[in-house]
Amino acid sequence: MIGTARFAEIERDAADALVSATSLAALAEAQTAVLGRRSALASAHRDLAGLDPEERRAAGKILHEIRTHLEALAAERGAALAARERAEMLDRDRLDLTEVTDDEVCSVIRRGRLHLVDQTRRELEDVFVAMGFTVAEGPEAETDWYNFEALNIPPAHPARSMWDTFYLDLGQPETVVLRTHTSPVQVHLMEEQAPPIHAVIPGRCYRRETADARHLPVFHQVEGLVVDHGITFADLAGTIETFTTAYFGADIHSRLRPGYFPFTEPSAEVEVTCTICRGKGCRTCSGTGWVELAGCGMVDPAVFAAVGIDPEEWTGFAFGFGIDRCAQMRHVIADSRVLGENDVRFLRQF
Ligand code: FA5
Hints:
There is one protein chain. By secondary structure, this protein is α+β, with helices and mostly antiparallel strands. It folds into two domains: 4-93; 116-347, Bira Bifunctional Protein, Domain 2 (BirA Bifunctional Protein, domain 2). It is 42% helix and 19% strand. The chain has twelve helices and nine strands. It has helices at residues 4-19, 24-35, 40-47, 53-93, 102-108, 116-130, 144-147, 184-192, 233-248, 301-307, 323-330, 344-347, and strands at residues 134-135, 141-143, 176-178, 197-206, 218-228, 254-261, 264-273, 290-299, 315-322. It has a seven-stranded mixed sheet with strand order 1-4-5-9-8-7-6, with helices on both faces. The longest helix is centred in the N-terminal third of the chain and has 41 residues, at 53-93. Bound molecules: adenosine-5'-[phenylalaninyl-phosphate]. The site of adenosine-5'-[phenylalaninyl-phosphate] has 24 residues, from strand 5, strand 7, strand 8, strand 9 and helix 11.
């Protein structure tokens, strides 16, 4: 049966169903029931087919207006229900942090922290800044010239085998490297600023090495460079001693051993008593009782020549400490590989 009274009834029933929906899910069901293919409205539309053209046009117009009104009603109800459901959810999930203790907060929200290596880098920077050094930085991708040649290591020099190098696929073959140490930043600094220079440069280094108890393929060093009038090996030794005492405490035994680096002359290695075995010999120190922390020495005149500094006027020293190695010895970590594994059960201790 089709007529204005029937249309009004369809509209009233449909509007009731929509406004009485109490959730978004119920509203979706009501919409299907009153606006969908099986609704009274759709059926009234189909009945239009039996009317003559004049009546069909008039009735069709009314049904179109009813549909438009019901759709607007459904949208309005939907917006109101969505706002209410969101407010209820926020209220339900709200954490009142004033009502719980600090420990309870920690058990709910686990606070993040810096990785042990980053904490150590900051501590080392603080120690050196307190000694009058400034902090600089340099690039991790270097040309062969900065990483090797300017440091008095020409191509094919046997000392290149001291650093197993990752080459980047850039430019001519084997001309761009991931820096194997932070020493190339010495060269950048001396190119960029005139002496006196008193700087430390922390940063990441890369070597093609298999990880073991003391070595990682990606690790960190802090380079030190001092260029000034009248700098001697005694200044270097005093700086190393002040640093090791400040970072490890007075109880640590450290020593300088003669070493070789093409960019320093004389050169030395800084070692500390292995904190894992207290000098008795273990897997971490390869049974020697000592662990190397750094290489160091007096800046070789050939390096000054590469950057145009007059070695008759200026002298200097440089050092490169392993940051991961310092953390390992200070926190008595038998195997350095845990520093690269990102296991939060280990990292959470620091
Ligand atoms: C160098 O890299 C020199 N550039 C250091 C230097 C600087 C000498 C300035 C003279 C003047 P060496 O390869 O020994 O030297 O590394 C220095 C320190 O970095 C090591 O004593 C160690 O503490 C750390 N280190 C080196 N290789 C690794 C590695 N694979 N994993 C973790 N730490 C490492």
